Amino acid sequence: MSTIPNFFRLTVLVLSIFFCALTTGCASITSGKHQPVSVNAVCDGETVVEASCTLMNDKGSWYVKTPGSVMIQKAFGDLAIDCKKGDSVASTKFQSKSNTGVWGNILAGGVIGYAVDAGSGAGFDYPSTMTVTMNPPCSGKDTKISAQASEK
Q1: HSE, side-chain direction, 13 A CA sphere, residue 117
Q2: CA 75 → CA 35, 44, 113, 138, 152, distances in Å?
Q3: What is the pLDDT averaged over residues 111-120?
Q4: Which of 43, 57, 62, 129 is most solvent-facing, going by the fewest CB within 10 Å?
Q5: Which residues partner with 52 through β-bridges?
């Protein structure tokens, strides 16, 4: 057997690990550290408009009124969402899931690359649309939906 193929494989592996370590993680390059998310609120099956929501993970806090979108920083941990409108409140969590960038980084960068992507959050995604169920009393449901129901 020739040692050239083994040497070549080892060289490629070392260069891949080195490159990923220098570029702060492969997923950081391919998918970035930020993600837009849409937040909707419902109560008794109807849309709640202008509910004030706070989104929190270990990278920070963001605010949005429903229905709305906000750019958040991704993280390894859960994204907690707390919403309030009048006496109606909601509190829920959404899990982050590993994206394809983190798997490529595990293959190319090993444990070091995975650790960088996990630390920056770039290797993980949250659902792009999140629906929060508000607890009754349902103040502030979508007036268009309520008006149509009362006309019938």
Answers
A1: 32
A2: 10, 31, 15, 32, 47
A3: 54
A4: 129
A5: 65, 84
Q: Which residues pair with 83 in a beta bridge?
A: 53, 90
**Higher-pLDDT residue of 7, 143:** 7
pLDDT 10s digits, 11-35: 666 666 555 544 444 444 445 788 8
Answer whether residue 106 shows pLDDT above 70. no
DSSP classification of residue 149: H
33-137 belongs to which CATH class?
A: mainly beta
By DSSP bridging, strand 88-94 and strand 46-47 are unpaired
Determine the 3-state secondary structure of 56 from DSSP. Answer: strand
Residue 63 binned pLDDT confidence (cut-offs 50, 70, 90): very high
The three-class DSSP label of residue 78 is coil
**Amino acid in the structure at residue 23:** T
Residue 43 to residues 53, 116, 144, Cα–Cα distance (Å): 14, 40, 15
CA angle at 47 for the pair 38 and 127, rounded to the nearest 5°: 25
State the pLDDT at residue 81: 98
Q: Are 49 and 142 in contact (CB under 8 A)?
A: yes
